[in-house]
Design a protein that fits this description.
The chain is of the alpha+beta class. The chain has six helices and eight strands, in the order H-H-E-H-E-E-H-H-E-E-E-E-E-H. Strands 1, 2, 3, 4, 5, 6, 7 and 8 form an eight-stranded antiparallel β-sheet that branches. The protein starts with a helix and ends with a helix.
Length: 229
C-alpha cells in the first residue's frame, strides 16, 4: 500500500489523467462548459451506495477548454467531422475513491437532444480506430500537463469485452506507466461507454497499484446503466 503522501500525489495525477478522458468527453470549449452540473444528469449518476464498503465520494472538477479540445482530436484522428458530434450538452460528473487500495472511479453522464445525436458520439468510442486515437490523445495530453511533474511512456489502449448494458456499450482498457516526481506507478483503467436512448454514461474505474478487482467494472457498469432514464 502506498504511503499517505505518495497516495495523495498519485491520486492527484490519476484523477487529472482520468479527467482528460472522462471530464472533457463532449463539451465544446464555450462558457457553458463551466456551468453548474445538470440536475437531470446528476440524478442519473452513480452513488456511494453503489460501491462496496471502504469507498468514499470525492470532489470532481467541471469540464474545461484544455480537456474539451482533446475530443476534437479524437474525432479528427478517426476521420469524423467534429461538427457532427461536438455540442454543449447538460452533464454532470461524480468521483469516488478507496484510499486503502489506491483505487478510483469517475463517471460523467451527458443528456443528448436525440438518440441519433447520442449514437454519433458513441461511435467515436466504439470505432475500430478508437484505441489508437484515444491513446495518441492521452499521450499528448499527459506530455503537455505539468501536474505533479508527470511523464508517461508506452501508453496502451485496447478494446475489451464490456458488459452488454443499455442500448449499447463498449469498453477500452488503458495502461499508462507514469513517473511522478521520480516515483513510478502504472495506472490501469477500464473505460466503459454506455448509451441508453439519448443519454450516455462514461464509467472509468482505475487503480494506481494494480488491476481493478475482477468483476468490479462489470458490476459498476450495470449499476450505471440501471440509473440512466
Amino acid at each position: 500500500m502506498a504511503s499517505s503522501s505518495r497516495w495523495s500525489r498519485w491520486a492527484a495525477v490519476g484523477v487529472a489523467v482520468a479527467g482528460l478522458g472522462v471530464g472533457g468527453a463532449w463539451a465544446v470549449p464555450t462558457a457553458a462548459s463551466a456551468a453548474a452540473p445538470s440536475p437531470k444528469a446528476k440524478a442519473q449518476l452513480l452513488r456511494l451506495s453503489d460501491f462496496p464498503a471502504g469507498w468514499k465520494a470525492t470532489p470532481t472538477t467541471t469540464s474545461s477548454t484544455s480537456t474539451t479540445s482533446q475530443f476534437a482530436s479524437i474525432a479528427a484522428c478517426e476521420g469524423i467531422t467534429g461538427s457532427t458530434v461536438q455540442t454543449t450538452v447538460p452533464d454532470a460528473q461524480a468521483g469516488f475513491s478507496r484510499q486503502k487500495a489506491a483505487q478510483f472511479a469517475m463517471e460523467i453522464v451527458g443528456l443528448w437532444p436525440s438518440p441519433g445525436a447520442a449514437k454519433k458520439v458513441y461511435a467515436i468510442f466504439s470505432a475500430p480506430k478508437a484505441p489508437t486515437c484515444i491513446g495518441d490523445m492521452l499521450a499528448k495530453a499527459v506530455a503537455s500537463t505539468s501536474t505533479g511533474n508527470i511523464t508517461a511512456s508506452d501508453i496502451t489502449v485496447a478494446k475489451f469485452r464490456a458488459p452488454r448494458v443499455g442500448s449499447a456499450s463498449t469498453g477500452l482498457r488503458l495502461t499508462i506507466p507514469l513517473t511522478v516526481q521520480g516515483s513510478q506507478v502504472t495506472m490501469n483503467a477500464d473505460f466503459v461507454v454506455i448509451r441508453k436512448g439519448k443519454d450516455i454514461a462514461i464509467v472509468m474505474p482505475f487503480g494506481l497499484e494494480g488491476l481493478m478487482p475482477a468483476g468490479f467494472t462489470t458490476s459498476l457498469s450495470k449499476k450505471a446503466a440501471a440509473r440512466l432514464h
